[in-house]
Amino acid sequence: MRIAVIGTGYVGLVSGACFSEFGVEVCCVDKDAGKIERLRRGEIPIYEPGLDDLVAKNTRAGRLSFTTDLAEAVRGVDAVFIAVGTPTRRGDGHADLSYVYAAAEEVALALDPARYTVIVTKSTVPVGTGREVARIVRKARPELDFDVCSNPEFLREGSAIEDFMRPDRVVIGTDSDRARAVMRGLYRPLFLIETPMVMTSLETSELTKYAANTFLAAKITFINEIADLCERVGADVHDVAKGIGLDGRIGKKFLHPGPGYGGSCFPKDTLALVKTAQDFGAPLRIIEAVVDVNDRRKKAMAERVVAACGGSVAGKRVGVLGVTFKPNTDDMRDAPALDIVPALQAAGATVSAYDPAGMHEAERLLPGVEWAKDAYAALEGADCALVLTEWNEFRALDLRRVAKLLRAPVLVDLRNVYDPEAAEMAGLEYSCVGRCS
Ligand code: UGA
Q: Which residues form the signal peptide (predicted)?
């Protein structure tokens, strides 16, 4: 089988590489000629464990190619996956669909009318987008033989390949049996591992993606608020999470408290679903509250640091460990660090920081930060150490050495990486989330 993938962002590149690993012939398209050139040389624009090897292997095998020429890429394919960005539209919080619709039109103009093609929306798109894509394509080329299908992606940055290869489920939304058969063919290897396939309508599939992300965002926000309450009443949030998570109806995952969710998906998707629900006269009050609570949380985190530093950070140095929105990525989008670091600087602190993968991107977004060559260097002479991302290498830090390097032995751990007892034994004044009095 052959497919084209439009957009070599996170979802497009990972999906393209993984489909080629399934044995599908894949051509990835992007308007950015420099990016395509780099991809052809095997240079991966994002940090994702295992992706470089997968791309190299399948490019060598001739199953994966890259081009800027959309018309050439879609020639003779069974399906075209649209995986372009859907950022938050300035001003109103809705998803900006202009890239999706422009891609749909371009695809329409390039397709061969003699060949049946499935046009698949892989990007996260609001309910109604698939129908609009079909309308645009039909208007541009009434003679085309095509169907539209929604096939949202549920992969997480940092474990994207595993998530694609061994998903909990695949959701396929279309009204057409013919399109369903093509999609089944593409995902054939997943049938071998008995992956559940949820076959549904376009609208249901589109909404399922948003419902999944907003539910997970709500789960995190719930445990974050429970963590705050734990601190007030002297309870331990990890035990609460375990105690509720072992109930199969609740589940153990996504109950880790922290500085608030970030990233390229949850903030954007919660906001977009709130807007859609308002537009359709069925407001999602729970998700409205989730958005509000999470925004406030990220902003309030700097106050914890100020409190741990004795009420002021003016003239003090804060050593930050990790700035990306989560580990195993270089992605800075909506990272809590983008709220917390500027707030500390505004309160008069000097910030030094280290991140294993995100510093290149962060340099631009966090002006005035002194970037260090490793974790220990970031903490040297600081009045407070602050953990913002739970990279594995931070778990293994020698806390006695940390205590010696710091000018004042204050450790604020917003990801609960350390054992409070061990931190205190090392001579640190340790504060974390939801388990300290
Ligand atoms: C998220 C979803 O998990 C994926 O299923 C989905 O496909 C993806 O969005 C998307 O729509 O493309 P991702 O943004 O890569 O994936 O990251 P997550 O691992 O979900 O983490 C999101 C944020 O929640 C991070 O800031 C993380 O630190 C935070 N988080 C996560 C917590 O604070 N606690 C948790 O228990 C879990």
A: none
